[in-house]
């Protein structure tokens, strides 16, 4: 039987890391209270202290690549529209 890895939300990670950063409880107490490994608590605390809350967001490489592709398409469309506008201005000046 295989076990699935738990995936925790960014808010949960932030909450646990913040508790660890406060230092009111030991990391073992925090880990047992939240059902995670003590090493994970330490890792999340270090990430919190160095990078802050936004680093726990889940932006995958695929999502970033899709966004870059979409941006490239939009910039290409803007370029085409600018060229059409210039061409229309030129033609309008000839007739007007």
Could you walk me through the main structural features you see in this protein, from its secondary elements to its overall organization?
The protein has 96 residues and is mostly helical. The chain folds into 2 domains: 8-58; 59-96. Helices cover 73% and strands 0% of the residues. It contains 4 helices and no strands. The chain has helices spanning 10-22, 27-34, 38-51, 61-95. α1 packs across α3 and α2 crosses α3 (38-51).
Question: DSSP helix count?
Answer: 4
Low-pLDDT parts are: none
Query: Given the C-alpha coordinates, what overall shape results?
Result: elongated
Largest sheet: none
Distance between the termini: 79 Å
String of helices and strands: HHHH
Please sum up the structure shown.
The protein is mostly helical. The chain is built from four helices and no strands.
Question: Keywords for this structure?
Answer:
single chain; 96 residues; mainly alpha; 0% strand; elongated
List the helices and strands and how they pair.
Elements: H1 10-22, H2 27-34, H3 38-51, H4 61-95
């Amino acid at each position: 039987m295989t076990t699935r890895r738990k995936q925790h939300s960014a808010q949960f990670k932030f909450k646990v890391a913040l508790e660890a950063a406060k230092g009111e409880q030991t990391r073992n107490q925090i880990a047992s209270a939240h059902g995670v490994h003590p090493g994970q608590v330490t890792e999340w605390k270090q990430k919190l202290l160095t990078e802050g809350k936004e680093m726990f967001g889940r932006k995958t490489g695929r999502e970033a690549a899709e966004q870059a592709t979409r941006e490239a398409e939009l910039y290409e469309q803007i370029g085409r529209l600018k060229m059409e506008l210039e061409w229309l201005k030129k033609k309008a000046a000839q007739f007007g």
